[in-house]
Structures are given as C-alpha cells and as structure tokens.
Amino acid sequence: MPVIIKNRENGLGQILVGMETLANALKITFGPRGRHVMIEKSGDPVKFTRIGAEVADGFRLSGTFQNLGVSLLRGVAESTYRNAGDGSVMSTVMAMKLFKECIRLVQSGHSIVDLGKGLLNGAEKVNESLTAFSKPVKTINQMESLLVTSSGGDSWIVEPILSLHKKLGDKGSVTFGYTDGIENKIIFRKGLSFDETYLSPYFDDPNSESSELDDPFILVCADKITDMEEVLSLTEKISETDRPLLVIAEDINDDALSLFLLNKKSGVLNTICVKAPGFGDKRVDLLEDIAAFTGSKVFGRSLGSPFEKIGPDKLGGAQKVRVERSRTIIMDGKGTKSRLKKRLGELRKRLSEETDDYEKQTMKTRIAKLMAGVATIKIGGYTETEKSLKRSQISHAYSTLLSGMEGGYVPGGGLALMMAASALEKSRPGNNYEPAYKALATSLCAPLVLLAENSNANGDYIKEKVTDGSFKSGFNALTGKLESVASWPVIDPLKTVLVAVDTAVSFAVNLLSSEVFIAEKPYVLAEDEAPLLGLKGHKGMRGIAGMEHDHK
Question: Which of 55, 293, 350, 495 would give a disulfide with 407, using CB separation of 3.0 to 4.6 Å?
C-alpha cells in the first residue's frame, strides 16, 4: 500500500486540526452542566451521550492526517475509560493543553528530550501529591457523592446502584439490559465471573457488546487443547443434545480452534472458547472454583483426566453464560450446594493458615466471588434512545463507584488537580525539568477552567479565586458557586484522576518526540474500475472519507 510521509513542519498542523475537532466535541460534555452529543451510525439507532469515550468511538474526518490526529486523541479517551471507567474527557483536555504548552516551549528553543523527561518526572510527583490527598470511601454519603458527581447530578441512579452494591459488595458482577416497559428492574442470581475472554475474536459478535449462551455445557480444561480428533468426538456427542458449549481452556491449537469456529458458523454447535484464568498451578486452583460452581470436573492430562474420557455427562452447566470483551460471567451454575459449600470450606481453611498478605487478599477475593453472585440491571424508558442514554449513565456511574471503592477518592471538580499543580510548581527541580513542570501544572488546571466555562462562568476567574483562597473552596458546577471544601460534596475516584494524568502525559511525550508522520495513501478508483463495480459515471468514491476524486 502506498504511503504519505510528512515531517513535523508539514504534518503536525493537520494532526492538530484533527485533535482540536474531536476535543471540541468532547469538551461540551464535561461536568454536570455539559450537554449531550447526538451520534448517528449507519444501521444503528440515534444515540445521545455525554460519555467522552462513546463520543470518540467512531469519530472520523475526511483528511488523512487530520484523521490521524483524531485517532491519537481517541486513544487517550478510550485508554482512560478502559482503565478507570471514567475520566475520558478530563484526560483529553489535559493532553491537548499539555501538548500545546510543550509545542510553545519547543518553538522557543527548549529541548524535546528534556521536556519529555521532565514531564515523566513531574507526573510521578503529581501522582504522589494526589495519593497524599486521597481518603478511603467508607460511608454511604461518600458513595452517593461519587455517584452523583460521575453522573453529572442525576440522582436517580443512586438508589439502584447502592441497593445492588449492598447485596453484592464490590466482588459481585453486574450486567445491564433493557426492560420492555418504563420501569427499571434489578434481578439477582447466583453467578461467578473471571477476567478472561475469547480465545479468538471470531467468537465475538461485532454487532453486540457481549455474546450469550443459554443452558450451555461447560468444559473446564487445565491444558492446551491440541487433538482435533478428540475435539471432533466431543462436539459430535454434544451436537446431538441441541445445547451450546462453553470451553474454558489454557489455549487451543489452530486446527482444533478452527473446528470449533466452523461448527459455530455452520450452526452445528454454538460454541464459545474462552481463556482460563490464572497461570501455572494457580490456574488449576482457580478452575477448581469454576468446576465447583458449574458441576464440572477439571480435565487435563497433567491431572490424570485426559480429554478422550470426556462425555456430556462429565461436563458442567449453567443457566446462562455471558462473555464480554473483558470478562466471562457464568450465571446460575449447576454445581450442587454441597460441593460449593465444601469448596468454600477448603478456601476458608487455607485462608486461616495463610501467612502471606497478598495470598490472603487473593483468597478473600475468591471466596467473595463464589458467594457474591450476579445482578442484572434492566433499564426502562419511553423510547429506545432514552433507554440507551440511561444505560450508559448507570454503567458509567457503577464503574466510578468501583474505582472509588478500590483506591479512595480526592476532591473533585478539578480541585485535587489544582492542588497537585500548586505543589508541583513549588517543588523547584532546579534543572532542565522546570519548563516541563510549568507546562504540566498549567495543563492540570484545564479541567477546572472548562468545568466553569461549561457552567457559564469565567474559567480563568474561577481558577484565580480557587488559588487565591489557598484551595479552601472549590467550584461546584451544579450550584455555580464556590463552596467550602469542609463540606465539599464533589469527589472523584483517585484511580480515575491518576489514570487521566498518566495517559495525558504519555500522549504528550510520545507525540512530542515524533518527527515524521506516515499514513496510508487513500486508494482512488481508476476510471476503468468504476464500471466493474457498477458505479456508472462515478467519480472516485464520493462521500467516503479520503476516497473522493474527480477524474478528468
């Protein structure tokens, strides 16, 4: 494929245009006074959202290098959302401000290498400051504040999320769906989840965020599946039952995997293969948890249970299995109560004898997962658009709550970032890092300024008042007022803020150090190719980004 090559002077300007275009679409969603973005994609219903990662997903421009800029900034939003569950707009705002400050410094003669090192060093100090400001989430009021802040003041989400958290704790799994009516419903059931997913992307449904199997057989295997003949024998037996199959295995070789995929595509046997959790001996131990829950046996030659001895009567089962792109959830496993009780007893006994703190925590987590279960929140509404919007809001808020429970919270509304910026400016590195420190400190103030501007306030004025008041008050965008931190109801998960800062700095450092930009050259149909495709009189591929061309 031919490529287009541009140097910094010729390419960076177009890349910045693309980044600015996406950033402007993201900025308007920020904070409780932010507005929605309406998204239309071919074949999908119109969607309204204020979640930055959803806005960035699928955002495209026609210009090749402008679109390269969009892709770069989209990566910032998606990475932050994937790793923290929130903070996508916060990170993109800081990333853009930081990169612009660094470009200004480079143009005034500062070293790119020194700036990069200074930013990475400064980010470490910012993380230390933010961690020092943090407090653990302990009370219901703190949980409510996290939820209301993350949802932009939509208090309707508080009651359903707190009720399911009370039932499940922070180790249970939550899925989201829709009702046929206008009321929301929460369904609790026995369940077990683990953080592994498809062994091949071809098992995934590209038109859905997850794949489900109803009443499947479950094969739990500690080894790599390598023998195609054994796979064929098993699938023939199961296909006669008209039930689907979930395979949990360390790995599957190409031939055996192809057979599973062929059976799925042809409709012979609906199968999903997922990777087994854990490594080495720990994998077998974790698989024993799954086996106890599903009523299966852990197979493997290393365990003295070879694959050829497997029949449907030896497999486990569940009422439903849901495989998402980051986890697998088994609902209503068919293991007996006595076996599950025995397994929990074994784990509790090992916990009482364990001396290593890390192993103790791991064991507690496993016990909690076996006991917690799964909840499904079904969202109601008057229209499909309303249901989609409410589902995005509640799943987003739940992720925020889990992040807060995991790592604690810091003052929200950009206040913690302002405090960290002030501490960074006072640190005085006394070397070539000082310009980078100042650039980073400036970017940390950008979220507060934007929050105020989206609330029809003067961002620079609010920033000045917060700084002059020694950070004893913060800007509450819901009320539009400066309020005392002593009773500050606006809080953010520490994890979200740390991930946002690190992602923004990583973006700026990598782009700053790039001197040459290479992109694929768009393919343009030749004049004699158009008739072959039934495009009579077609000049290029009009309406398709980067493919327009007027043949003379």
Answer: 495
**Backbone torsions φ then ψ of 340, nearest 5 degrees:** -65, -40
Of 71, 74, 91, 68, nearest in space to 15 by CA: 68
Closest CA to 337 of 370, 367, 309: 370
Here the tokens at position 505 are 């700095």
Q: What is the pLDDT, as a whole number, of residue 528?
A: 57
Amino acid identity for residue 466 in this structure: V
Instruction: For residue range 432-491, list pLDDT tens digits in order.
Output: 888 999 999 999 999 999 999 999 999 999 999 999 888 888 898 888 888 888 877 888
Residue that is written with structure tokens 């910032």 in the block: 76
User: Can you list the residues of the chain whose pLDDT is less than 50?
Assistant: 532-533, 535-552
**Helix, strand, coil in percent for the chain, rounding step 5:** 50, 20, 30
The CA-atom distances, in angstroms, between 169 and each of 273, 373, 399, 401 are 29, 10, 13, 11
Q: Which pLDDT does position 547 carry in this prediction? A: 40
The string of pLDDT tens digits covering residues 277-296 is 988 788 999 999 999 999 99
CATH classification for the domain delimited by 3-135+411-516, as one of 1.10.560.10, 3.40.190.10, 1.10.443.10, 3.30.420.40:
1.10.560.10
